Amino acid sequence: MGRFDGRVAVVTGAARGIGFGTATRFAEEGAAVAILDLDESSAADAAARLGEGVRAVGVGVDVADADQVEAAVQRVVDELGGLHILVNNAGVTRDNLLFKMTEQDWDVVMGVHLKGAFLMSRAAQKHFVAQKYGKIVNLSSTSALGNRGQANYSAAKMGVQGFTRTLGIELGPFGINVNAVAPGFIATEMTDATATRLGMGVEEFRELNAQHNPVRRVGYPADIAAAVAFLCSDEGSYITGQTLYVDGGATLV
Fold first, then answer.
1. d(CA 207, CA 201)
2. Within a 13 Å sphere around the CA of 17, how many CA atoms are in the beta-carbon half?
3. N or C: at which end does the chain have fewer Cβ atoms within 10 angstroms?
4. Domains in the chain and their CATH numbers?
5. In this structure, are residues 224 and 21 in contact, taking their beta carbons and an 8 Å threshold?
6. What's the chain look like in SS3?
7. pLDDT tens per residue, range 116-161
């Protein structure tokens, strides 16, 4: 028997990386899973990769578009029979130093991370409030504490933490827990692409980042998925409005 038997989980930006790792964890623990991503074919392919016997659907959606979000959430409810868990993981980067950063760089990052989390949470909470049960986990980042070349991303990820605290206050009386997870360096296609952009080998780049935290290793999507799963479980029902840093202790040093 799994912790999420009978639950329906939605994970945004879940066609790959942390999102797919989180969707996989929910599926392994018994949930029906909706993978939301910008490209529907990628979302559908990822849903199929969750394995035989898993009730899953892939839905294409731009999380920064209100109409698309409302339609996507309703489709999940219609096809999977409900909604109990929302993980706002969708994200993009448009890194640059301030004097080179364009308005579009700023707006795209804010739109996906902040507006996306707002729209998805607003659409989901209607179902959560009606059933007096729901779990929301928003993905922040250690970059929320400041990171050179990421003024847009850092601001968005710290905004996610304020958003999380406020929803914790507003939605707690309705049986809804809202928390955030702030990953440190996680080995994904996105960070591998950063290594390439910097002219470094993937393993070299990972090792360099591993030396910047006390546990001396990089993180993997499964590490984030484990934290998200706990916060979305009934064992975490007395935790709300919090941000959990999952970074190998990098923010300690």
1. 10
2. 21
3. N
4. 8-184+220-247 (3.40.50.720), 187-218 (no CATH)
5. yes
6. CCCCCCCEEEEECCCCHHHHHHHHHHHHCCCEEEEEECCHHHHHHHHHCCCCCCCEEEEECCCCCHHHHHHHHHHHHHHHCCCCEEEECCCCCCCECHHHCCHHHHHHHHHHHHHHHHHHHHHHHHHHHHHCCEEEEEECCHHHHCCCCEHHHHHHHHHHHHHHHHHHHHHHHHCEEEEEEEECCECCHHHHHHHHHCCCCHHHHHHHHHCCCCCCCCECHHHHHHHHHHHHCHHHCCCCCCEEEECCCHHHC
7. 999 999 999 999 999 999 999 999 999 999 999 999 999 999 999 9
Is residue 181 within 8 A of residue 228, CB to CB? The reply is yes
Distances (CA, A) of 108 to 113, 158, 205, 252: 9, 16, 27, 31
Catalytic positions, written as ranges: 153
Contact 76, 124 (CB under 8 A): no
Helices 189-197 and 202-210 pack at an angle, to 10 degrees, of: 100
